[in-house]
Amino acid sequence: MQDIHSLLATLHRPRLMMRAARIGAETYKRESHLSRLLGYGMLPRHAQALMRLVDMESELERQRTGSDGAYAMLRHIDVLIAIVAEARLLRAAHDGPQRI
Predict the structure, then answer these.
(1) Has residue 31 been placed in a domain?
(2) How far apart are the first and last CA of the chain?
(3) Exposed, middle or buried, 49 (CB in 10 Å: 0-12/13-18/19+)?
(4) How many domains would you assign to the chain?
């Protein structure tokens, strides 16, 4: 099984979508954003949230590339924003506090 960082490294999406996701991740509010995507209730840890988001994103990518009529580009960007932000939060939690 791939670890989450190598899994994220293999994610290749159109440049414009990823640029929008990186910009959107700057204003990411975990509680409201993640609850809207994963459902309300207790929020999962960063790694668990990322795994669920990656599963959602892969389905959206399948719809996008298959020209599925149910595809929602804004939802896809929303999920990508959450993936980028959660990956940043996971990395920051793993690295610990920075010493000056």
Answers:
(1) yes
(2) 36
(3) buried
(4) 1
Q: Is residue 13 part of a domain?
A: yes
Q: Which of 2, 1, 9 is nearest to 91 (CA)?
A: 9
Is the full-model pTM beyond 0.90? no
Asked whether 84 and 36 are in contact (CB, 8 A), the reply is no
Q: Is residue 100 part of a domain?
A: no
Span 20-72, pLDDT tens digits: 999 999 999 999 999 999 988 899 999 899 999 999 999 999 999 999 999 99
Q: State how far the Cα of 26 lies from the Cα of 24, in Å rounded to an integer.
A: 5
DSSP secondary structure string, 27-62?
Answer: T--HHHHHHHHH-SSSPPPHHHHHHHHHHHHHHHHH
The structure tokens listed for 45 are: 């840890």
